[in-house]
Write a structure and sequence with these properties.
10 helices, alpha/beta, about 20% strand, about 325 residues, seven-stranded mixed beta sheet
Length: about 325
């Protein structure tokens, strides 16, 4: 491997493509051709000697090395942006822009924002939302979209960034209470085969992952496997009684408490990924970001302790 660093422009192209997961969209945003994006990514992959993206017919997916590298260089570009803004404007932008998945925003975080408003009315928070929680989502602090993010992943993904673990994630099959008959036994895993199984298009292996840690890893439904294209649609299908779906807890808890969903089987699988708050390493230089980070970490610690007490003790 050459000791010369890749050109800054090539890294910018890679970071854009990793955020959009599309060479075509990256080309449109950067005002260059798709072939130019593809060529720069190919050159970067040849420089490293391994793939940064998996190319699929339906789109791109970052490899494990691609996620780590994208997140690492995002922090470098964030430092450049802060330095440039400081020189150019001479003052800090107080508005906090948070990158977050739609699932976390609509359940876990949204229910706590009233307390944030009560304790810190001076903060102005806006969201940059994506639809997925794959555990392979990259971050991009280089542009105007976000100053920090809440992401599902593992600790080793956030190299070069500051990160705080927020909550553990468990997978558990749930469904509408109208779907189950009175004789349903939530301890009998084979009973799940009597119902349709709902799948997320972007998390096609979630059922298999849950089953792999159970006593019946080869279990299949005797009914239909139904694939839905996003979390909101899949969740609504479960609420409407179309079938059973594995959901993340504690994110599913509000729907369980409201009685819109019930547990279909009692076994909860602990995922290797957790939710993390991720931001540039120099976050303490941004008072707005520091206040939000401190508040969020405190909220998450209290929530995790209460959840462990309610469901694990």
């Amino acid at each position: 491997m050459s000791k010369r660093l890749p050109p800054l422009n090539t890294l910018w192209v890679f970071l854009t493509a990793s955020r959009l997961l599309s060479f075509t969209k990256a080309a449109d945003e950067l005002f260059i051709t798709r072939s130019a994006v593809s060529r720069q990514i190919k050159n970067l992959e040849e420089y490293f000697g391994f793939k940064l993206f998996e190319r699929h017919k339906v789109g791109l997916e970052l490899t494990e090395q691609g996620v780590i590298y994208a997140n690492s260089i995002s922090n470098v570009f964030a430092d450049l942006k802060v330095a440039t803004d400081t020189v150019h404007h001479g003052s800090e932008n107080r508005k906090l822009k948070l990158g977050i998945s739609a699932t976390v925003n609509s359940t876990w975080l949204m229910s706590r924002l009233c307390r944030l408003e009560q304790h810190h009315p001076e903060l102005t928070l806006s969201f940059f939302t994506n639809s997925f929680d794959t555990g392979k989502d990259s971050i991009d602090f280089s542009g105007e979209n976000m100053n920090a993010a809440i992401r599902l992943g593992t600790e080793d993904q956030w190299q070069g960034c500051h990160y705080d673990k927020l909550i553990d994630v468990y997978v558990q099959p749930v469904c509408s209470p109208s779907l189950l008959d009175e004789s349903h036994d939530p301890e009998d895993i084979t009973a799940l085969a009597n119902y349709n199984w709902l799948h997320y298009g972007h998390l096609s292996k979630l059922w298999a992952q849950w089953l792999s840690t159970s006593r019946y890893p080869a279990l299949q439904t005797d009914k239909k496997n139904i694939v839905l294209d996003n979390v909101a649609v899949a969740t609504q299908a479960a609420v409407d009684g179309l079938g059973i779906i594995p959901m993340y807890r504690p994110l599913a808890d509000p729907l369980l408490k409201e009685g819109k969903l019930v547990v279909a089987h009692n076994y909860m699988m602990l995922k290797k990924e957790s939710y993390y708050f991720v931001c540039p390493e120099n976050y303490e230089n941004n008072q707005t970001l520091k206040i939000f980070r401190d508040w969020l970490v405190n909220e998450s610690q209290q929530a995790q302790q209460q959840w462990d007490k309610d469901f694990l003790d």
